[in-house]
Specification:
This protein has helices at about 20-25, 45-55, 85-95, 100-110, 120-125, 135-145, 150-160, 175-180, 200-210, 225-240, and strands spanning about 5, 30-35, 60, 60-70, 70-80, 185-190, 215-220, 240-245. With about 280 residues, the protein is an alpha/beta fold. The protein has two domains: about 5-95 and about 170-270, Metal-dependent hydrolases (TIM Barrel, Alpha-Beta Barrel), CATH 3.20.20; about 100-160, Orthogonal Bundle (DNA polymerase, domain 1), CATH 1.10.150. The strands form two sheets. Strands 4-5-6-7-8 form a five-stranded mixed sheet. The mean pLDDT is about 95. The protein binds adenosine monophosphate and manganese (II) ion (3 copies). Adenosine monophosphate binds near residues 154 and 250.
Length: about 280
């Protein structure tokens, strides 16, 4: 089963429209697809129409930004929920609401280190007003010639602790999982190998997530190494969580992994899509 349950469209920080993304997934032989825009479900309608038109099975998806233990940002994926659920819609609107002010602060901080006009520059890449992300800043900073790659931009300016990084309070873990469950969906921790937490903290995060009603881990992610895959697979076994698989595709030439091009999941794990009807 070539399931790809993690990708971004222009409704958040991806570069393709939801329909273009669906067509690329179909061309790359994906046979179960989810669009998981950051804190946003407005792209799902267009994706659903395009998926129906080309016969690509699809479930609803979202990637919610969470603040955990004050200084860690964690991403929680939701799948197969009712995208008209008001609790989820209101929760996501609340998470998005802080993004513009954060982006203005990022612009001010970047200005102090010689990157001028970054807020306005980032906005040129934003198609969903209010959903401005660090990726939009990265596109502008590369285009303005300050760096050659996304990696360089994050390493120099946008990663935690760098001059353009602004601390922000997102949803709580309990809120994100609660909204997804309220809408009838399944909650999964995105790319668990990528967080800069200790081994103990990672175990505590997974245990808290499970206690809050979370059901899965993204064992295979385009943004995780094979070492991470093994580590996360072990966590899934220990905590008896379902396994998910997603490229985290953002756009041609920009992402670690193309949509639908990942290795298979370890065979012993129970897949998250076994829970979908
Ligand atoms: P935000 O939600 O505004 O904090 O932006 C987070 C997004 O920035 C992620 O979803 C990725 O798309 C992107 N990102 C974060 N770190 C990196 C990195 N090291 N290289 C490339 N993109 C990154
Ligand atoms: Mn992103
Ligand atoms: Mn993420
Ligand atoms: Mn993502």
């Amino acid at each position: 089963m070539n399931a790809d349950l993690h990708s971004h469209s222009r409704a958040s920080d991806g570069v393709l429209t939801p329909a273009e993304l669906v067509q690329r997934a179909k061309a790359n032989k994906v046979d179960l697809f989810a669009l998981t825009d950051h804190d946003e479900v407005s792209g799902l309608r267009e994706a659903r129409v395009a998926a129906a038109a080309c016969g690509l099975p699809m479930v609803t998806g979202v990637e919610i930004s969470v603040s955990w233990r004050s200084d860690h940002t964690i991403h929680i994926l939701g799948f197969n929920f009712d995208s008209d659920n008001q609790t989820l819609i209101d929760g996501l609107a609340g998470v998005r609401a802080g993004r513009d002010a954060r982006a203005r602060l990022m612009g001010n901080e970047l200005d102090k280190v010689g990157i001028h006009g970054a807020y306005e520059g980032a906005l040129k890449y934003v198609s969903n007003p209010g959903l401005v992300s660090r990726s939009h800043f990265a596109r502008h900073i590369v285009e303005a010639g300050h760096a050659k790659t996304f990696g360089e931009v994050f390493d120099h300016w946008l990663a935690k602790g760098k001059p353009g990084y602004v601390t922000h309070v997102w949803a709580t873990l309990e809120q994100a999982v609660g909204w997804i469950r309220d809408a009838g969906g399944v909650a999964v921790i995105a790319h668990p190998g990528r967080y800069r937490v200790s081994k103990n903290e990672l175990h505590e995060l997974v245990a808290e997530f499970k206690a809050a009603g979370g059901e899965g881990l993204e064992v295979l992610s385009g943004s995780q190494s094979p070492d991470d895959t093994n580590k996360v697979a072990q966590l899934a076994r220990k905590y008896e969580l379902l396994a998910s698989r997603g490229s985290d595709f953002h756009g041609p030439g920009e992402s670690w992994m193309d949509i639908g091009k990942m290795p298979p999941l370890p065979e012993d794990l129970m897949t998250v899509w076994s829970r979908f009807n």
